[in-house]
UniProtKB/TrEMBL annotation:
It comes from the Eukaryota. This is Uncharacterized protein. Keywords: Membrane, Transmembrane, Transmembrane helix. It comes from Henningerozyma blattae (strain ATCC 34711 / CBS 6284 / DSM 70876 / NBRC 10599 / NRRL Y-10934 / UCD 77-7). The chain crosses the membrane at residues 25-53, 125-143, 185-207, 213-239. GO terms for cellular component: endoplasmic reticulum; membrane. GO terms for biological process: endoplasmic reticulum tubular network organization; membrane organization. Belongs to the PER33/POM33 family. The lineage of its organism: Eukaryota, Fungi, Dikarya, Ascomycota, Saccharomycotina. It is a multi-pass membrane protein. It is found in: Membrane.
Amino acid sequence: MPRKIKVIKKKSHEKKKDPLAQEKLLWTIGHSMMLVLGLIFSITYFYHAILFFKYRDIKWLFLKSKSEYSIVTGTRWFHKLLKWAPQILYRLALVGGVLAYSTTMKQNCKGWSPTWYDLLSSENFQTLMIVLLWLFTFGKSFYRILPLMANSLIHLMNKKYEMTNEVDDKLNSDVARKHSKILKLIAYSEVFLMITLFLDTFLMKYGTAGVSLILYLGIFWLRLIYSPYLQFTVLSILIKMDKVVPKSKKKQWEKLKTFLKENREKREKRQEAYKATA
């Protein structure tokens, strides 16, 4: 009679990888890159701005750069690295933003297929579009990256509730109340950024300035429709400017304010209807 061979399976001691934990790690790395590298870039940006009189031509009222001037002198490899350091820091910070927001969108879209309306009305998707716009267009600026850094700061400060199923309307409103000053900073910086893009286009600072302005205006319009803080900020700015608006433009001015007010009211009604059906 043949002997029976008993096969004993070796138990695996390897821990199963948690996909949510991996995604949260990528999310944390992305927002940390945006915040830390963005802050280092900001230091180099303002250091460069303070020395504007050295590389700007006074004959052109500082509007024209001196092509022969460079803050870092030398031909060694580390001199070249220092020259490119601000650009590298800026681009890597934006790569971190792409990593963080694409991970968030992947997590949010699990289990359902979002429509274009769902995507375009999502603030995460709007921010991802802004990050991609700055990543693939020429130029670098502190004013472009400031609202993104502020956003990353809020996300990291509320890391405990991010990428989980514990987020609800009450928690969102509590977070908004807690970080209202930072949210106001983000809204004002987005408005100021639009002004800087207009100036860049007018002064022909670089070749793609006009393209950047047009694309940003499209995303800004979406933000204006769906972001309550941006709506409130723009509306408050328009109300403050009522006195300086000429009488011939008063009708259009009032239409713009009415449009913003109606959008806020529609958003509040949608939220109430959603709560009622939830």
